[in-house]
Fold:
Amino acid sequence: MIRQTVHFLDSRTGAVPFMRKSLRYIFPDHWSFLLGEIALYAFIVLVGTGVYLTLFFEPSFAETTYTGSYKPMQGLTMSEAYRSALDLSFDVTSGLLMRQAHHWASNIFVAAIVLHLLRVFFTGGFRKPRELTWALGLMMLFASLLEGYLGYSMIDDLLSGIGLAIGYGVVLSVPVVGADLALGLWGGPFPGDAAWESRMYVAHVFLLPILIGILMAAHLALVASRHHAQFKSAKRATERKLVGMPAYPAQVPRSIGLLFATAALIFLLGGLVQINPIWQWGPFEVAQGTNGAQPDWYLGWLIGSLRLVPGFDVTIADYNLIPNPFWGGALFPIIVMAVLGAWPWLERRFGGDSHSHNILDRPRDVPVRTAFGVAFFTWVALIFIAGSADRATVFFGLDYEAQVIFFRVAVIVIPLVAFFTTRRICRELKRSEEIGFDQERAEEEAEEEEEAQEAEREKEAAPA
Amino acid sequence: MTTSPDGEPESRDIVAAGPESPRSEVTVAALLVGAAVSAIAFIGVYSVEKFSTQHELMGLTLAASFAFVAAALILLGERVLPSEEVAEDYPEVAAPQEEEEVAKVMEESAAGITRKRLLVGAGGTAGGAIGLAALTPALSLGPWFEVAPLYRTPWRAGRRLVDDEGKPYKAEEIEQETFYTAFPEGSSHRNLGASIVVVRVDPAALMLPPERAGWAPEGILAFSKICPHAACAVALYRKPTYGPTQPGPALVCPCHYSTFDPGKGGEVLFGPAGRPLPQLPLTVDAAGEMRAGGNFSDAIGPSWWGIDMEQPH
Ligand code: FES
Structure:
């Protein structure tokens, strides 16, 4: 039966030699290799729940009166988009579950990508021959941030509107072409004409998911083509020899198990933990604002940077050239992206190592990279934390302005301190290890020698 | 692959023998049954009439069903199926021969061309022009190169200030220590230039620029409600709570906490905004109703490259 099926497939498609290889593709074993897989599986859940949501959501700014079952909003004027999102939450059985699962999945998706990125960075997984894999991953991360932003922006509640207002301000601030870009995208001045809603929608449910899907496919194809990098944990593992478990039968059940575990977590959260309660925000109106609505965590670093930049525009007489949001909203993420994107090449150029690597580094073995990484991600994390300074004011009564001034200094000083401390720690760790190694090696050598001598003696003692 | 002396390939196992564990097999089966039961429970919860914890229970049953499958599969991998450690050489980083051949194909194919420059130039021109042509329809996306709409506001001298419902504001209704949102009578609320905040401060504390004398009758001031930083609505009003040591009243934007001083004509006190909140001149008519005395002091909304900040239209 199996043989017949395989033969049928092979004679019709010629795919069996490829299948033969794939079945025994080797996965080195380390928990941190699962982070990328979790992202992939969260993406699958995102597509599944997302398709369901599109069947009910109406991407339209057309005005309507709410008559659904959520009492506090009955009779309110709102857009069809918001109305359909409310109906999805209150009047479609399992609609709320799907919407919340979708939102949780997006959070888990981005979180898994970020952790995966950190793992790859600190272990040098981006080195030759995997620079392109790294670049594709970065593009995926940034496409996902935009995807998530558009997702909650098209609901057209107050949170959406505030987020979009800021996005509009940032696009408008881009030097030279800002106004044209913003007018082109929005189809007119903020809040935009009717087409803007369908543009967000087509980007969110079609263009960006396809882009992310293609990037993901290319990313995985490159991983498979160069094979996984591995830690030097198995004795036999070397730069030339990959050691691990074959795809089938060892890896497949575990991996699909992880898919189901990820889905279980997402639906558990989607069912039990409220996320983006859109009925609390109310419909968006240009003249409304609130300091209660928070965007998703993965945009927090941009809020932080927009808040930390001191208040100045670059102006000539009465003319503005570079308005303030450009620094925090556009330049900052571009710098982060550019530094991460250029890092493999920078390291090759200045680290003087242009060899191929299949064995991953331990962070301590490459003190400068590790120190740079810790400093860089500390910088981003501090700006991220600064984005929640207003929460600290609300919950702990800390003075907001004092916090901002503190962070303006901290984002410069703390990364520097982090750099030198980390480098020091790495070097110390390595040194103490080398001492340990030397001892071990000496002991081992002594042992070997003893064994050799013993063998010698036995030989001699043996009757000829 | 090894061969036996007579040249026939010896058939041997590819997959190493796994752990024999009948107990685990039973557990896996039990977990899968658990998954089925949970999935059916989900269908049940879905099918009954709406009740308050329905979606929580749906989430729980669906998650349980997935969790059972996850446990079953992981157990299957760990305890039932063989999971041997195998080793294999990494693929060669490069294939020098093919690289050479590809380069040769490219070179040799073009070897007979004498006017290479001309062809490349013409090709580049065609590609560029077609690229531009393909991008041109994108111009229909919006009013590109046409920034006039960005300046536009519905405020003109004499226009009445009305509230959310369209009821005109009377000067006597404007109290200190609170703030009001107003719109121009008969205009869409969606226009960025429409909404304003109205506050009343002690006229003695006013420090408006000289050219704005008379913009704040009785100490009533109006400003664009749209933050000049990034278009959020300036929705918070900080009022002094205890006497002179406290900072004075301020309009605050909840997005990045740009803070503006109404008494000084909207000057930035703190935060990222690079220019003041545009002020709207006010008058009080004979009936005691608030009217605009003209257009804003500056361009409203967030700035862009080349904006003339002094120019509302
Ligand atoms: S939008 Fe008001 S401070 Fe940024």
In short: Residues B 227, 229-230, 232, 253, 255-256, 258, 271-273 surround FE2/S2 (inorganic) cluster (CB under 6 Å).
